[in-house]
Amino acid sequence: MKSHLKILTVLAIIFSSILPSCSKDKDENKTETIVGNWTFKDVAAKDIQTNKASNDAKFTNYLLTTLRNENEGYTYSFSADGVLQTQIGSSSANVNYTFTNNILTLDDDGVKTELKARLENGLLILKLDEKDNYQNIELDKLLEMGITDIDFEVNKAVVTLHLERKK
């Protein structure tokens, strides 16, 4: 009888340590999804470089301010059937999307764009390369930034766009 009691006690100890870890494993294996409504939270500079180091901070500030202003107020709705609707006020647009292996592929009538994307701490973080969008900045914009170099060039302009689930 005492040996049965010892075995039951040992089994109880083993199961009490295994069961909580099983439920934790189950939670950790749960796949997060981008399906749902998201709103713009912020943008962060990751790798910004111009052709003159003295212009990097000025351009970074301009770029982040511009991207914040452009994205403020947007809602991004990812449906389970692969349609992304972007909306601001009464204006909206739809594109098809897939999200596989941390790559968000947007398909706008056959024009495909791939973005690195990840879910982290309740945020959807999109990695954007904005270099090509800022190669031909008008002179008045350069002067606003405090850049007087006529030969100004953007070498790198990688940012992350942070979206949070709409409550």
From TrEMBL:
Origin: domain of life: Bacteria
Annotated signal sequence range: 1-23
Keywords: Signal
Protein name: Lipocalin-like domain-containing protein
Organism whose genome encodes this protein: Niabella ginsengisoli
Lineage of source species: Bacteria, Pseudomonadati, Bacteroidota, Chitinophagia, Chitinophagales
